[in-house]
Amino acid sequence: DRRKTLSAPPLPAQDRFTRSLLVQLPFRLTSAQRRASAEIFRDLALPHPMQRLLQGDVGSGKTVVAALAALQAIENGFQVAVMAPTEILGEQHFNKFEGWLGALGIKVVWLTGSLARKQKRATLADIATGEAQIAIGTHALFQDDVEFGNLGLAIVDEQHRFGVRQRL
């Protein structure tokens, strides 16, 4: 596996935010969600890049597993990008992440091509300085004018709807 020859900063579990999120959720994780999260946590702690596909039916809780993975990167001082193929899906993710993680003091921003120029400039500045710990958006996230201060994890929703180069 070529990935194992590449290096990436290990992101070990810290549990500072993770535990807080689990306590505030209005539901308990299923055994499948706990198992998937544990596998992702182990992969993130390794010193090489993780490339993982999380599959599940609509409503099966993939988003909460993604949020837990995002927290592990944030707890290690890194930013997270969450990319969705449409503005509607991206906005749903933004609302979920903002609701769950904003309450923990984590700054979540929304970046899409339809933002007003002034708002887009402010959002790009927050991403570049690292003030935005999670950037959620559409393909706008990987345009030339987007610079992350310290990107550690990219989560791509419905990755089959993006081209090969976009996914990479």
Please, could you describe this protein's structure?
The protein is of the alpha/beta class and 168 residues long. It is 41% helix and 11% strand. It has a 4-stranded parallel beta sheet with strand order 2-3-1-4, sandwiched between helices. Strand 2, helix 5 and strand 3 form a beta-alpha-beta unit.
- What's the count of strands? 4
Main-sheet strand order equals: 2-3-1-4
Q: What gyration radius follows from the Cα positions, in whole Å?
A: 15 Å
Mean pLDDT level: 89
Largest β-sheet summary: 4 strands, parallel
Q: Treating each run of at least 4 consecutive H or I residues as one helix, how many helices? A: 6
In brief, what are we looking at here?
The protein has six helices and four strands, in the order H-H-H-E-H-E-H-E-E-H.
How does the SSE layout of this entry go?
Blueprint: H1 16-24, H2 31-44, H3 62-75, E1 79-83, H4 87-101, E2 108-111, H5 117-129, E3 134-137, E4 151-156, H6 164-167
Parallel strand pairs: 1-3, 1-4, 2-3
Helix pairs in contact: 1-3, 2-3
